[in-house]
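Purpose: get a first structural picture of the assembly so the mutagenesis plan has something to point at.
Setup: two entries, given in the order below. No constraints added.
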Amino acid sequence: MRPPAWYTPARQGLAGLLLAALLASPPLRQWLEASMWRHMLLQFPLWMLAGALLAAALPPRARGGIARWNAHGIAGLVGVGVALSVLMVPRVLDLALQDAGTEAGKCAALLLAGAAIRLSWGPAGLVVQCFFLGMQLPMMVVVGQLYIDSPLRLCNAYLLDDQERLGRWLIAVAALLALAWLAHAAWRLVRREDARLAP
Amino acid sequence: MLRTALLSAALVLCGLAAARWLTYDFQVWTDEGARRLEVALRPVQAPPVAVQGPGVAAPDLPALLAAGGGGATVVDFFYTHCETVCLSLGSSFQQLQAALQADRAKGEASGVRLLSISFDGARDDPAALRAYAQGLHADPALWRFVRVPDGAQQQALLRRLGVVVVPDGRGDYEHNAALLVFDARGRMVRVFDIAEQQLALDYARHLARRPR
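Result (structure tokens, whole complex):
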């Protein structure tokens, strides 16, 4: 599978830049952060997507430099895991609404996490990928279940039914990601077998 | 590989530091928990916002909290149209009032008073507050009801005290209802959960007794 000709690194970087500017613009920010589920399940991945697109525009020299510190994508995925774990603390969502510093830190962490996934996913290989998802996805499920079960509002700025909806979606997204990765891993393994058996 | 291990360890340490900062050394996970901890560590001075209510002569909030010399005030936020959490706040305030009346009947007035502040200042005029107070059988000597008539001042008060009010889209509000204990100098010194009503009362009694 070769990417289409228009999908150049420079254009990807430009798209990432545009997306980041759009996400930072007050109207979109306000709309995304007006609800708890949009805040965590739409804004978080979109910032990561912007980071992933920006990473494509890195010059080869820089990529080589990063790769020396990122054998098998381990450092990158460790960083992503750490960032996402910290950002799952319910206080982050409230604090990001009140404090510009926290908001900036949150967005920067997500941008870097997106770039780190892009640079680390391929080199990681199936084993490291499995280990990473095996840590992250169960955490998403536990946090989701917590949001569903809590009779109290964990964020002052959001309503209880919003919190419950976010919990259900977190579990659903974790399940979808797990299924998608299993399909991807199976496809890779089958292709590897085919290549071995081919004359 | 060594560099990767070093970078990974550094990232984990950065994450731990961020998490420690965010959760006050893993003591709190929510912003409400952080707010209560912060208030206990550093009391918050009530801003001089103008208040208005049935039988309330004090011009602003600090004056109202200081009225009658020493003592402490347990404060809650409500609005008269509320049908959910404010009702449970109302009944917990009724129980607090009963305890304070019992103190008074024994001849040892505790110096603790109750104050309900409306965050729906546009609708809750003094007449509405009086009707609401009568519905709850509030004793005017112990339990007052006020609103902040000025919208901007009301917002400033809510922000200063960390009260977050969210419209629920059906014409009602949800808010982080709690029992706020103020001292006679107009400082919010502790925030208690609605369920910790006895604790709040004992703390306010202790505060009112303490020589200043």
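Chain A has a mean pLDDT of 93.
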